[in-house]
Amino acid sequence: MTSIRQIEANRANAKRSTGPRTMPGKVRSSRNALRHGLATSCKSDAPTFAAAICAGLGCEIGPETAAAVADAKCELWRVRLVRHALLAALGGDPVGDVARRLEALERYERSALAAQKRAFRSLSSARV
């Protein structure tokens, strides 16, 4: 069981460690885990891509459905770009390091493929 003294020490430590307080510190700490950019979304490209999807299909679909398809395709495209860059750099890096990075990309690709599958399902149900 935790003593009263330990609880008070924990509370005092928690008051001191509140994270960054300035805006530049908050911006810098928000990018701590960002290594390859795949954890961010590509919402900036999505509206143009969604409009192109609507025009290419030639049928009336909802903006949410077109945006879902555009987001999924954009995410998958970004994962494949990162994989291509890793494979291109294979000559300079140790094979084990590149293999570890490629294995880490699988999580993002699985997520993108699942989103694409959901988007295509909603697209096919919207077209019926």
Compose a concise summary of this entry.
With 128 residues, the chain is mainly α. It has helices at 4-16, 23-30, 46-57, 63-88, 95-127. The termini are far apart.
Key phrases:
128 residues; mainly alpha; 5 helices; 0% strand; extended
Helix content range: over 70%
Succession of helices and strands = HHHHH
The beta-strand count equals 0
Any idea what the radius of gyration is?
Answer: 22 Å
Low-confidence stretches at least 5 residues in length (pLDDT < 50)?
A: none
Instruction: Tell me the β content.
Output: under 5%
Mean pLDDT: 78
Oligomer: single chain
Global geometry: extended
Biggest sheet overview: none
Derived structural class? mainly alpha
Distance between the termini: 62 Å
Annotation field: number of helices: 5
Task: Explain how this protein is built.
Helix content is 72%, strand content 0%. Helix 3 packs across helix 4 and helix 4 runs antiparallel to helix 5. It has five helices and no strands. The model has no long low-confidence stretch (mean pLDDT 78). With 128 residues, it is mainly alpha-helical. It starts with a helix and ends with a helix. The chain is extended, with a radius of gyration of 22 Å.
